Amino acid sequence: MVGSHSGINTVTPCAACKLLRRRCAPDCPFSPYFSPHEPQKFASVHKIFGASNVSKMLLEVPESQRSDTAHSLVYEANARIRDPVYGCMGTISALQQQAQALQAEVVSVRAEIMRYRLRDNAAAGGSSSSSSTAAAMAGYDSHVAQVQRSATAAALHSSFITSQGINSVAASDVKGRYWS
């Protein structure tokens, strides 16, 4: 961005150069991705990853993917600031558990709807269909119980993976590649 200050053209530094208190060069690797109007984005990324490491990461990916990389780094840094232990993995795990709980709730509601339908059919059809209705209900109830057990097992597996440090494996990979 070019501004005018008493007749002299000046370049407005990007958020990174402002924070680092340096002159923003025309080929600054940060300026396309860290606007001077949103300095908090670079501040959080710098706090978590460091400017040098962010620069290395941005320059390592193809130019077409750098914008997405910068957005991802901002999201990951904010998640790490909110949850220093699990970061993004904590958010992912919580969302997976919520999705699994909602899936189990959908199965439960469908089972209840099926019970009402079978009860209404049994009432309309008389006693001859009540034994087949009871058998159908028992089969459906066992299916619902099996689905709920598998949802619970998946939730436990998800929380086990998070607690066992998948995040620490990813962090050690990043540290090994970028921290010198």
Structure description:
This protein is mainly alpha-helical and 180 residues long. It has two domains: 2-82, no CATH class; 88-178. Helix content is 72%, strand content 4%. The protein contains seven helices and two strands. It has helices spanning 15-20, 39-49, 51-60, 66-82, 88-125, 130-163, 166-178, and strands spanning 2-5, 8-11. It has a two-stranded antiparallel sheet. α2 packs across α3 and α2 (39-49) crosses α4 (66-82). The longest helix is centred in the middle third of the chain and has 38 residues, at 88-125. The radius of gyration is 28 Å and the shape is rod-shaped. The relative contact order is 0.08. Residues 1-9 and 164-172 have low confidence and may be disordered.
Characteristic key phrases:
180 residues, mainly alpha, 2 strands, 72% helix, disordered N terminus
Would you kindly provide a brief summary of this structure?
The protein has 180 residues and is mainly alpha-helical. Helices cover 72% and strands 4% of the residues. The protein folds into 2 domains: 81 residues, no CATH class; 91 residues.
How are the elements arranged and paired?
Blueprint lengths: L1 E4 L2 E4 L3 H6 L18 H11 L1 H10 L5 H17 L5 H38 L4 H34 L2 H13 L2
State the total count of DSSP E strands: 2
Give the N-terminus to C-terminus distance in angstroms.
Answer: 33 Å
Strand content: under 5%
Q: Residue share in helices?
A: over 70%
Task: Please trace the helix and strand order, writing H or E for each element.
Answer: EEHHHHHHH
What does the largest sheet look like? 2 strands, antiparallel
Secondary-structure class: mainly alpha
Order of strands across the widest beta sheet?
1-2
Chain-averaged pLDDT: 79
Q: Specify the number of helices.
A: 7
Global shape: rod-shaped
> What is Rg?
28 Å
Unreliably modeled segments? 1-9, 164-172
What is the number of independent domains? Answer: 2
